[in-house]
Design goal:
Blueprint (H helix, E strand, L loop, with lengths): L1 E4 L6 H11 L5 E4 L10 H12 L3 H6 L2 E4 L4 H15 L4 E10 L2 E11 H9 L3
Parallel strand pairs: 1-2, 1-3, 3-4
Antiparallel strand pairs: 4-5
Helix pairs in contact: 2-4
Length: 126
């Protein structure tokens, strides 16, 4: 499993939680820093961001890829459109949730969401 992380770096504990949910190892984490210029097209910046990852067309279409999306909704939804175009399907994403530990907020892995399965199930409700 290849994890493309467009958010804050994951802790070793979060990676262990993730691997427990996946029932398989995360072989590689690619950290993708996201800092956008609000005066430029987000679609162009997303394309540039994804190009920098360096995967081939074949890798986009054949590798098992998990996405930790960026927090800013405009970037996240534009990224999903770009990835769908490259992968041929919606990616699977990681969701973190806040937890309070001794008065401090930390984040744990909440779930893995298969967006393609969500989309396919929604088609049945049309």
């Amino acid at each position: 499993m290849l994890l493309l992380n467009f958010a804050h770096p994951l802790t070793s504990e979060q990676l262990q939680q993730l691997q427990g949910l996946l029932q398989r190892p995360v072989e590689r984490v690619i950290e993708v820093p996201v800092q956008f210029d609000h005066n430029r097209s987000f679609a162009e910046q997303v394309r540039e961001l994804v190009d920098k990852i360096g995967l081939s067309a074949r890798e986009w279409q054949t590798k098992p890829i998990l996405i930790n999306p960026p927090a800013l909704n405009f970037i996240a939804v534009t990224l999903l459109a770009e990835l769908h175009g490259r992968m041929g399907h919606f990616p699977t994403i990681l969701r973190l949730r806040p937890v309070s530990v001794e008065g401090t907020t930390t984040y744990e892995v909440a779930e893995i969401i298969d967006l393609q399965a969500t989309r396919d199930a929604a088609r049945e409700r049309r």
